Amino acid sequence: MSLQLDEKGKLRHFLSIDGLSRELLIDILDTAESFATVPEQSVKKVPLLRGKTIVNLFFEASTRTRTTFELAAKRLSADVLNINIGASSTVKGETLLDTLRNLQAMHADMFVVRHQESGSAHFIARHVKPYVSIINAGDGRHAHPTQAMLDMFTIRRHKKEFGKLCVAIIGDILHSRVARSQINALNMLGTGEVRVITPKTLLPNGHHSLGVQVHHDLKTGLKGTDVIIMLRLQNERMSGAMLPSEAEYFRLYGLTEEKLCGAKSDAIVMHPGPINRGVEMDSQVADGPRSVILQQVSHGIAIRMAVMSMAMHQGTGEAKDWGGGPLSRGKRGSEA
Ligand code: NCD
Question: What does CATH list as the number for 145-295?
């Protein structure tokens, strides 16, 4: 049985896109859609997770992911603890499992975990009590499923039908957990064509099984694309020099207005952040009319609200009523 699902096939942990059905992914997108209007309410909250305790456990740096998880939990009315790993007993040698067991003893209901080791979220999910949920906020190079889902949400808002789309993911595929999760999600949602455009040194060995077209030339790879997803060079995960220089990388793979001309005229440009301006893209593109990069950040809150409420078994139907349906206005006044 899948570690991520309960015996009824409902989400219990959210660890990777791999192993989830197309129906479940669409359910996450639809549930997120129902939460998208919560920030427009006068009280930006729904009471779905009132009385629940969510712990953010980030062993790696994060800006967008950690803060949007915190905001999402608060908008669901949960109590949130942010553990500062640099100031925790991890620096005194406490193991990951011991840290977790101690937090569990404080009756936490959910852990949102980012960790440098691939597989860490699955490992933790295997060791927690049956009522505790784990959400993977990025494990090594392996997976970053909420990032992929917020990207799918952004694409669906702009482009609607995945079957007719050509999507290109550009840059450091080898070290990118974001790319791996995006490719899984795009394929599961039936995307017409998924391309990766990358130098040979940044292409993973097992790329034949990924279900993507591989390009090494940016100009030919961009031809006819509807969606362009740029990636950061994950220098912190590179063991040696894999590129001649950042300037050379920008010359060959950096996105500029001029190179963008090869894509469809209504192509959108995405990036999970953080951007390294002048390395993977220039500012004209990052801040230009085709960029939906800041929309991705906003959508991250709705997606994380959806995943957290679903994993806590706050049924999706109920979530829809609270989030965007006609009931949201009537019930708003009753929540703290
Ligand atoms: C990504 C990550 O941490 O995997 N960022 C994010 O979560 N928004 C991508 C990156 O660090 O380049």
Answer: 3.40.50.1370
